[in-house]
Fold:
Amino acid sequence: MARSIFGVVASSISLPKESILQVATRLHVFFQSMSKIDSCFCTPNFVGKNDHDLYELDVNNPNFINQLADLILKYAKGDISTHEKVNKPTVDFSRDFGFKTLFTIKNQSARLFSVFTNLGGDLGGGISLNTFNRDLNYDFNWYYSMLKGVVNQLDAGYGLVSFSSSSLNDEVVSLKVKFHLGWITYVSDTNPVKIPGDLPGLEYERDKKRRVHDYYA
Structure:
């Protein structure tokens, strides 16, 4: 078991540019997939202006996609009006740099995770999952399944499970490392940065369900 000091992050440059409605549809599939690993993802809370401005959604609700699309539009309208000069956008609106969303995942007594997404842009997208409660314990298989779920949803080129620490992130940025290795690391064969297949202390696994040369380490 591992304390909840890890975060899951993945990014992709292969996703198409998408409208608000298409982003909401993609997120519905994402949360459905995550809920099969951990049921707490069945009811993500969309974060509006702040942590107290929450909207609970249910992946089993047939109106999930429309509800989420309306929320994304509601909180993006001001920004769209400022940057794209569109005063009455609809859920069919798309933009070059996509749409950012934030969710909290809770159980009956406390917040467990935050899920940040940046999707719908013409340069791909990303999803990150971080924990609020470091007293929780999750085993390797839980993190492994979470990473696979995020990678599959994004058709990601890179993903990892690593320490969820702002100080570590700052250190990585200062070193100008493009792709650092985490506890678990995913690399696609489409990634321009190749990880050697014989690094000491690592175990490698090919993902046969995806491209032949994709692997986790």
Observations:
- The first strand starts at residue 2 and ends at 3.
